[in-house]
Amino acid sequence: MALHVKLGVSTWLWTSPFKTDEAAALFFKIKKFGYEVVEIAVEDPTLIDTREIKNQLKANGLSAVICGAFGPTRDLTSEDESLRKTGLSYIEDCLEIAGELGSDLFAGPMYSAVGKARLVSSEQKKIEWERAVQGIRTTAGLARKHGLKLALEPLNRFESDLINTIEDLLDLIRDINEASVGIGLDMFHMNIEEPDPEQAIIDAGDKLLHMQVSENFRGTPGTGSAPWEAYYAGLSKIDYKGTVSIESFAPANKELAAAVCIWKNLAADQDSFARDGYEFLKRWVKGV
Question: Which residue, 30, 33, 70, 186, is the most exposed by fewest CB within 10 angstroms?
Answer without folding.
Answer: 33
